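Narrative of accomplishments. A recurring question from our advisory board has been how the design workflow behaves on a single, concrete structure rather than in aggregate. To address it, we present the structure tokens for one chain from the evaluation set, followed by the sequence designed for it. No filtering or post-editing was applied between the two.
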């Protein structure tokens, strides 16, 4: 018997040990089954979201009720009461507590005259709450007869009574499937009406308590969800107060309204008023209008979309609504509209805790705020000319957008369905304890998820239990909303410019241009031309583009320069039109498309290289598990691969072409990895240097073979890297500074013959690499050789020794600090290093007059080589705290101390800084400041080349180029680029202070 009873109860969802005893006490259970007449009660209880909770609350309710027998009798016959009561008690502990505290309120849930069956009108709800505080609902300015704490209690009780009736109707279909389903938007509208009624009752109490002068007028304007009649069960009610007459008295009234409503019903938030918390709580109508005309931000007009008078002086409230409406519908034409909209999107995302991102119904990706934000943006853009879009309700506005052709009908319907589902989950979560929450239970909390699923009317589907169904539905709807912008913003744009077949209205080209401008395109007409070209025709490529472009445009919209990005995408697509895998890769590899849009909208260099090295797109894909990331391949391996590939070429022309092609490919790969944040600045410089060196080695070998022909090679040649090449610190725009040294290959060859042969080879290398090309230039610069451009291009070791012994200047010793063999004969390169070490690392240190000369040269360089009109604070090479400052400081320390400190004998600036600090020549703080200045200046210089596609040392002062440089350095693409400039100036200013102390010896 006991086992059968437990099984029967478990089948009904009752798992607690006390359930049987409670059911027997209530008279609903006998033996191992329900008593006669209580069967329907038990099935209704089983349909409750949490039968155990519902039964526990019924037990408490029965103990508190004075007429339980009557309630029991009604439960046996009243289907509506059963469905509403058990669903409510199994869904909300807070409203269950209210019923238990006020057991006489149960008729609110029964089929009878007392039940507040939706839809009750606002007037009835307002009258109920006003009567609760003793106010006359028919009075022009109602005044309560109940005040103080008693008024708060009366209003709280009446408000909860209304919530019980509304929640019972909302949950009815959960407890009894034969009862009607109340749609979530109707629930939200009634909650907003209830809030408006509560505000009106609080105002009646405040009026009685304060007794303001007769000329005092106060109107309460609902904002946010209350203004849009889409309020939650538990939510702050956003308001704005407008006053006339005695403003001080109106302010007291408003403050008192906020306190009474806050204690009785919900928090009242007035922070959307002009100037926010710092502004006056109450302003006159003229004060509001003046503020909005002169100082308001775009987001404030976005908020005013939902402004609606709900209480107080009706005429004043209506005057306010009519005054602000014209300003709302011209906001999209403001110069700062795009920037403000992007900032609003960023703030929404920043509010999400990382550990909550996947469970956030409201602020997470694919959440409620995404839908609301997108709908409001489309309203602002198109509502200027189409008054049918001017609804404060998200769902009504979405329907109007679909009816007007601004959104596809299917897309609008699907998005509305997802929005309703997410709001339903939000409502159920808040009902449970009447607490403000938008967070789904953790996936490990299966009990909470099961309760939520049942409360949301979900059922097992044969393949999944109810928790599985909930998670699948949540993920499906979140994914659908995550495609929000491609569906709402971009698909209609394609309909406007292509031959897409659509069953509903099409967006006009004028409306499409307005939308593109609002989304960040400076030249919407040009963008529409690109879209027309990409999607025109009936080819398979055009069809794939029509599928891809909504996603791609969404990615471009958040880049610094979407206009250039779209143009670049068109150019790349046209250049790769015959590449069969190109569009397929973008379609099938989402990360490739996302990364490509960021690269094209940020960099001019990447698309220029991409059309000639399209295979790099493959490395943008996520690597397979266990496979290395091709974006960050080892530079040494790259160099070996390049040399091997070039060596297989049959002639010099093919070899040089192969080397240049591979250099283009690797430069593009490094640029992509750099922009995507995959490589540090040191790794970028090393990778670019390795590629340059490999090109030099391969070209030198091929040219030597070509010049020698079939005969023996008469000379050994070594290429000595100088400057950034020697320090492995090349940037995208750096030349290859080198010197050439040669030696006879055998005793039979004279020095003159060796020099003649080596010169022919070197001139061939420089000419071949320097030939005009659409790729970044390959300039081999030998101007640092003895006697500069006037001296011979190639010298023997003896010639170098003679020159440096007799004629060397301090600056030449300084230049040799970065000398390192990079190509050609290894032994000859080693011998050259042995030759120059005593010159660049003098054992006796640097004489004082030499130090003075180096400082004088540096000062002259600073004064004479800075371009006219350049800003010394933001010039990455010659500016204060820039590359030259840091490098000259390190080199001076090396000239002074490397003779006695072998650790300082390095060609790397950063290694030199580290060793100088370890040797006590710099403090750790000074070394850190110099390193920070050098790294940031190097990154910025590289970013200029990436963004502009041509060399440059001067940071842009403003505009899209500055925003792109900032984005290339990792700053938010839609953020303020001035933040990057501030960081740059602060970092280089600190580095300059160290330079002035250490290099110049100034006591500052």
């Amino acid at each position: 018997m006991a086992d059968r009873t437990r099984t029967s109860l478990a089948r009904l969802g009752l798992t607690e040990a006390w359930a049987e005893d409670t059911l027997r006490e209530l008279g609903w259970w006998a033996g191992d089954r329900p008593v006669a007449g209580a069967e329907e009660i038990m099935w209704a209880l089983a349909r409750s979201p949490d039968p155990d909770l519902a039964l526990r609350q019924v037990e408490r309710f029965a103990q508190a009720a004075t007429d339980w027998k009557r309630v029991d009798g009604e439960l046996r016959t009243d289907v509506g009461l059963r469905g509403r009561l058990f669903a409510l008690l199994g869904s909300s502990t807070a409203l269950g507590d209210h019923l238990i505290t006020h057991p006489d309120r149960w008729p609110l849930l029964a089929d009878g005259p007392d039940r507040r069956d939706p839809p009750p009108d606002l007037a009835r709800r307002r009258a109920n709450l006003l009567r609760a505080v003793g106010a006359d609902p028919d009075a022009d300015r109602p005044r309560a007869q109940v005040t103080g704490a008693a008024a708060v209690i009366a209003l709280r009780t009446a408000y909860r009574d209304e919530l019980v009736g509304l929640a019972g109707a909302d949950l009815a279909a959960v407890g009894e499937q034969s009862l009607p389903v109340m749609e979530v938007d109707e629930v939200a509208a009634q909650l907003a009406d209830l809030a408006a009624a509560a505000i009106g009752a609080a105002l009646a109490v405040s009026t009685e308590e304060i007794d303001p002068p007769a000329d005092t007028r106060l109107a309460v304007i609902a904002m946010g969800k209350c203004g849009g009649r889409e309020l939650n069960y538990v939510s702050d009610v956003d308001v704005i107060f407008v006053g006339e007459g005695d403003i001080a008295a109106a302010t007291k009234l408003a403050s008192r309204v906020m306190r009474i409503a806050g204690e009785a019903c919900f928090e009242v938030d007035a922070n959307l008023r002009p100037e926010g918390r710092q502004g006056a709580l109450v302003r006159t109508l003229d004060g509001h209008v003046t503020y909005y005309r002169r100082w308001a931000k775009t987001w404030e007009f976005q908020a005013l979309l939902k402004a609606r008078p709900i209480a107080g002086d009706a005429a004043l409230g209506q005057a306010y609504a009519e005054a602000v409406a014209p300003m709302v519908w011209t906001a999209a034409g403001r110069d700062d509209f795009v920037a403000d909209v992007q900032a609003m999107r960023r703030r929404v995302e920043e509010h999400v805790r990382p550990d909550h991102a996947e469970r956030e119904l409201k602020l997470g990706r694919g959440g409620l705020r995404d839908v609301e934000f997108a709908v409001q943006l489309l309203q602002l853009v198109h509502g200027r000319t189409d008054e049918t879009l001017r609804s404060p309700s998200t769902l009504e506005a979405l329907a109007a957008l679909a009816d007007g052709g601004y959104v596809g009908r299917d897309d609008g319907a699907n998005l509305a369905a997802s929005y309703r589902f997410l709001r339903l989950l939000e409502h159920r979560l808040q009902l449970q304890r009447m607490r403000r929450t938008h967070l789904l239970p953790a996936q490990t909390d299966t009990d909470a998820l099961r309760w939520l699923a049942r409360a949301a009317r979900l059922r097992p589907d044969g393949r999944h239990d109810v928790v599985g169904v909930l998670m699948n539905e949540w993920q499906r709807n979140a994914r659908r909303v995550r495609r929000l912008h491609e569906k709402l913003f971009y698909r209609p744009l394609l309909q406007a410019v292509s031959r897409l077949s659509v069953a509903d209205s099409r967006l006009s080209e004028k409306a499409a241009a307005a939308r593109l401008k609002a989304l960040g395109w400076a030249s919407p007409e040009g963008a529409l031309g690109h879209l027309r070209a990409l999607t025109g025709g009936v080819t398979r490529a055009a069809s794939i583009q029509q599928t891809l472009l909504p996603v791609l445009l969404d990615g471009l919209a958040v880049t610094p320069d979407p206009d250039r990005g779209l143009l670049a995408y068109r150019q790349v697509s046209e250049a790769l039109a015959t590449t069969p895998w190109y569009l397929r890769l973008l379609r099938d590899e989402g990360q490739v498309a996302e990364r490509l849009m960021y690269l094209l909208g940020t960099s001019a260099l990447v698309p220029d290289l991409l059309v000639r090295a399209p295979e790099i797109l493959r490395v943008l894909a996520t690597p397979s598990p266990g496979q290395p990331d091709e974006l960050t391949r080892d530079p040494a391996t790259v160099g070996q691969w390049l040399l091997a590939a070039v060596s297989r070429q049959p002639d010099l022309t093919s070899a040089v072409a192969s080397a240049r092609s591979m250099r283009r490919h690797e430069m593009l790969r490094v640029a992509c990895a750099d922009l995507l944040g995959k490589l540090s600045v040191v790794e970028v410089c090393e990778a670019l240097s390795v590629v340059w060196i490999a090109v030099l080695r391969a070209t030198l070998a091929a040219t030597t073979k070509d010049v020698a022909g079939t005969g023996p090679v008469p000379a050994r040649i070594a290429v000595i890297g100088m400057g950034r090449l020697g320090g492995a610190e090349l940037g995208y725009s750096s030349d290859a500074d080198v010197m050439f040294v040669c030696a006879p290959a055998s005793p039979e060859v004279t020095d003159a013959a060796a020099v003649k042969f080596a010169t022919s080879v070197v001139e061939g290398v420089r000419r071949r690499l320097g030939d005009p090309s659409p790729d970044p230039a390959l300039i081999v610069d030998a101007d640092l050789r003895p006697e500069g451009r006037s001296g011979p291009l190639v010298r023997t070791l003896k010639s170098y020794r003679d020159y440096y012994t007799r004629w060397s200047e301090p600056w030449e010793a300084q230049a040799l600090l970065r000398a390192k063999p990079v190509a050609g004969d290894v032994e000859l390169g080693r011998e050259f290093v042995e030759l120059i070490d005593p010159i660049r690392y003098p054992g006796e240190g640097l004489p004082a007059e030499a130090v003075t000369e180096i400082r004088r040269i540096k000062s002259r360089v600073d004064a004479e080589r800075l371009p006219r009109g350049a800003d010394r604070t933001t010039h990455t090479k010659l500016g204060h705290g820039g590359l030259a400052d840091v490098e000259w400081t390190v080199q001076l320390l090396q000239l002074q101390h490397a003779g006695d400190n072998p650790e300082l004998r390095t060609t790397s600036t950063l290694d030199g800084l580290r060793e100088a600090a370890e040797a006590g020549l710099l403090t750790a703080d000074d070394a850190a400041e110099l390193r920070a200045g050098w790294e940031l200046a190097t990154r910025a210089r590289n970013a200029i080349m990436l963004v502009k596609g041509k060399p440059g040392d001067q940071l842009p002062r403003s505009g899209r180029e500055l925003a792109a440089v900032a984005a290339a350095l990792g700053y938010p693409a839609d953020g303020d680029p001035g933040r990057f400039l501030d960081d740059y100036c602060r970092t280089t200013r600190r580095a300059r202070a160290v330079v002035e102390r250490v290099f110049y010896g100034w006591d500052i």
